[in-house]
Amino acid sequence: MTTIYNSKEEALSRGIFYAGRTDLKVGELKKIDGKVYQFGVEIDSELYELENVNGLKVTLGLQFVGKDKFCLWLIAPEGIAVRT
Question: Is residue 3 domain-resident?
Answer without folding.
Answer: no
